[in-house]
Amino acid sequence: MWGRIKIRRADTLYSQYLRKERNYRCEHCGGFFPEGRGLTVSHYWSRGKESVRFDEENSDILCIKDHPYFEEHKTEYREWKLKRMGEKACNLLMLRAHT
């Protein structure tokens, strides 16, 4: 369990799929992690938002150093996300998260 949100089998499979799909690299620092060890899936909008729980635009592959950093520095995470996606895509993701 991460926080109070139960990790389901689908979450584990999604995480494995996404890490492989994104070439086992941290999307922030670019570090390579063979077989995905040392990588996590960061959900920009919490897993508790079921509408975007498995949304690839809501999911970032981050190393075990960068993930907690962004969790503690939400403003920097938002700026990084805006730079990667653009304002329109971020706004659409926000709408999906709150639907």
Summarize, please:
The chain is mainly alpha-helical and 99 residues long.
What does this protein look like?
With 99 residues, the chain is mainly alpha-helical. The chain has one domain (9-97). Helices cover 43% and strands 10% of the residues. It has four helices and two strands. It has helices at residues 9-21, 66-72, 74-85, 87-97, and strands at 39-43, 59-63. Strands 1-2 form a two-stranded antiparallel sheet. The longest helix is centred in the first third of the chain and has 13 residues, at 9-21.
Number of discrete domains: 1
Provide the residue-averaged pLDDT: 94
Taking Cα atoms only, what radius of gyration do you get, to the nearest Å? 13 Å
How is the main sheet built?
A: 2 strands, antiparallel
What is the straight-line distance between the termini? Answer: 24 Å
Classify the beta-strand content into a percent band.
5-15%
Structural class: mainly alpha
Oligomer: single chain
Order the strands across the largest sheet as they lie in space.
Answer: 1-2
Got a strand count?
A: 2
Helical content band? 40-55%
| Form type | globular
> What are the secondary-structure elements, in order, as H or E?
HEEHHH
| Uncertain regions spanning at least 5 consecutive residues | none
Helical element count?
4
